[in-house]
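can u do me a favor
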């Protein structure tokens, strides 16, 4: 019985993860960056978060913005690698020819806060998801 339940849990988890998985993963190595630039695949070059007063400022940039019409910046106070974590949409921003984008999230609750950015097309379909960046806000 335990074997059947374990197998069922693996199947359900794989379905959920494959449904939730981003269309592409972040590009990290110089070789991957060169390939992304050549093939015009939308991918994130960087994402950074730092404290800004009582809030946090997140800055990100793309290697290629081909097909990207906008961004959704997301935040969670939960474990960012837990597939059941709830990601709140902090802001949406149109994509233009800028090299980098920035958003300040004011008056945050204390704790570890995780951010990620999702590049979307005209229909709101995710094209790629950035790496996760974490910041700690202490009690004010």
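np, heres the sequence
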């Amino acid at each position: 019985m335990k074997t059947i339940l374990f197998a069922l849990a693996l199947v359900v988890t794989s379905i959920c993860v494959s449904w939730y998985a981003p269309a592409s993963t972040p590009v990290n190595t110089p070789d991957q960056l060169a390939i992304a630039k050549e093939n015009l695949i939308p991918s994130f070059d960087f994402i950074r978060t730092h404290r800004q007063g009582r809030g946090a400022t997140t800055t990100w940039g793309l290697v290629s913005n081909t097909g990207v019409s906008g961004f959704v910046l997301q935040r969670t106070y939960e474990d960012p690698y837990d597939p059941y974590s709830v990601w709140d949409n902090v802001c949406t921003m149109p994509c233009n020819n800028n090299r980098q984008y920035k958003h300040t999230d004011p008056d945050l609750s204390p704790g570890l806060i995780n951010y990620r950015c999702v590049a979307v097309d005209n229909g709101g379909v995710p094209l790629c998801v950035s790496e996760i960046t974490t910041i700690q806000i202490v009690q004010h």
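The domain at 24-137 is CATH 2.60.40.10 (Immunoglobulin-like). hope that helps!!
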